[in-house]
Amino acid sequence: MNVPFLDLKAQYRSIKEEVHAAINEVIENTAFAGGPFVAKFEQDFAKFCDCKHAIGVGNGTDALWMALVALGVGAGDEVITSPNTFIATAEAISLCGAKPVFVDVEEQTSNMNPALIQAAITKNTKAIIPVHLFGQPCNMDPILEIAGKNNLYVVEDACQAHGAQYKGKKAGSMGNAGCFSFYPGKNLGAFGEGGAIVTNDDELAAKMRMFRDHGQAKKYYHDIIGWNARLDGIQGAVLHIKLKYLPAWNDARRKHANDYSTGLADVRDVILPVEADYARHIYHIYAIRVKDRDKLMAYLGEKGIACGIHYPVPVHLQKAYSFLGKGKGSFPVAEKCAEQYLSLPMFAELTDEQVAYVVQQIKGYYA
């Protein structure tokens, strides 16, 4: 049996006619850059996230960068975040002219450890970016409390957490802004690049809408220095169709995750992902931890099972961020997790047979 890590064709086939009709409507209306199809998606996505505003942008990196810029983060500022994330989180900070400051993560959740934040705050700290890694929200109450006491902004990196919840609150809705990626492999994925920022702040939303469109609120009248970060009309239309299926797709992922965890519960060599008692995890990634990760990955590959590693090198150990001077041992929990992560196949359309086969092969490897 072959089990792909991700099968975008399976999802496409299930919504093919609807998507084709939506794309054709965009073409017939020649509404390619921004426009009514993006506006409709923004309205629906804001409602989905329990927020007043959603601003569609070019990708998740744009979303993070624009949110920081709109909040006034710039040269000389510091932004606290996690080292075990996709590099876009740190890139957004750097592209503002600010400095990323990392704090280590909790071993159980792989998310930012709130107990370490206060010690990382300096007179230059402007914001905190909690990363809801793999689809599980960070422990937001203490993060928001620390931010409030220190007059810091909170920008949620919810790029992997579409529909995840923290104590019943939607990911992205708790900070000053929440940022999402619609990269094709995400739980809510476009047919190309896409992203969005959600917020309940009217003034911030207006500023970000201008910024994504060259700083103009009225055509050819530019109030601020902006950027071209509009979401394409075709992507808006596709995402509008997909959004109504997202709750069911997330539920399917949660079922697959439960089946993995139940099936592997008695394998002592495997550390399973844990859903925190405050969270509703949506399992963008189902990452186990094993000490012999590379060998297990190769073995599963021989059995027709494709796996991934998210992420093999923490950001502070990437060559691009060597100038920070944070060598190996700086964030030991994040580093240990990076050496042990193995992402198993995870997408809504996985079959029970495929999940059972993956479990069987992992058990066989450790037998």
Explained architecture:
It is a single chain. The two termini are 20 Å apart. The protein has two domains: 8-104 and 111-243, 3-Layer(aba) Sandwich (Aspartate Aminotransferase, domain 2), CATH 3.40.640.10; 246-366, Aspartate Aminotransferase, domain 1 (Alpha-Beta Complex). α3 runs parallel beside α4. It is 38% helix and 14% strand. The chain has 367 residues and is an alpha/beta fold. The mean pLDDT is 98.
Q: By CATH's scheme, which homologous superfamily of the largest domain applies?
A: Type I PLP-dependent aspartate aminotransferase-like (Major domain)
Q: How many separate domains?
A: 2
SSE class: alpha/beta
How many β strands by DSSP?
14
Instruction: Give the overall shape, derived from the CA principal axes.
Output: globular
Unreliable residue runs: none
**Strand residue percentage:** 5-15%
The helix count comes to 12
CATH topology of the largest domain: Aspartate Aminotransferase, domain 2
Summarize the structure.
By secondary structure, this protein is an alpha/beta fold. 38% of the residues lie in helices and 14% in strands. The chain is globular.
Secondary structure layout plus pairing:
Layout: H1 8-29, H2 36-48, E1 53-57, H3 60-70, E2 78-81, H4 88-95, E3 99-102, H5 117-120, E4 125-128, H6 140-149, E5 153-157, E6 165-166, E7 169-170, E8 177-181, E9 195-199, H7 202-211, E10 216-218, E11 221-222, H8 233-243, H9 246-263, E12 279-280, E13 286-289, H10 293-302, H11 332-340, E14 341-344, H12 352-366
Parallel strand pairs: 2-3, 2-4, 4-5, 5-8
Antiparallel strand pairs: 1-9, 6-7, 6-12, 8-9, 10-11, 13-14
